[in-house]
Amino acid sequence: MAEPKTRLICASEALRNSGDAQRFTLELADGSRQAAFAVRYNGKVYAYLNRCCHIPVEMDLQDGRLFDLTGHYLICSMHGARYVPDSGYCSWGPCRGQSLTPLEIIEENGQVWLNVMSE
Question: DSSP letters of 7-44?
């Protein structure tokens, strides 16, 4: 049975509310690697695979710049799909109604950790 473990993503202070994302790479169970990101929204940290639901490409052409000008939506720079930061739900665009793949994050002692499963 797999046991939980954590992996350090960044210091808490690296994530500002509606600011740039912290990018990282996630190693999947099949051995492949996938881009991911963490953002802070309304004081809480959220993390997702960096893969748009419409076309599986990374959403940020400029590293870490995912929030729109209002600071209330994550936006795919390829075609403008808008995602709600605290749920990953696509509220506008060609993939409306779908959601980003969430990752479990733990924030404690001034650090942001990814909760992963060991094999």
Answer: EEEEEGGG--BT---EEEEEE-TTS-EEEEEEEEETTE
State both tokens at 79: 């075609």
- Residue 119 pLDDT exceeds 50: no
Name the amino acid, one letter, at 92: W
Rounded to an integer, what distance in angstroms lies between the CA atom of residue 78 and that of residue 75? 9
CATH of the domain at 22: 2.102.10.10
Domain encompassing residue 38: 4-117
Q: How many domains does the chain have?
A: 1
Give tens-digit pLDDT for 69-91. 999 999 999 889 999 999 999 99
Distances, alpha carbon 15 to alpha carbons 32, 43, 44, 93, 105, in Å? 26, 9, 10, 26, 13
The yes-or-no verdict on residue 44 having pLDDT over 80 is: yes
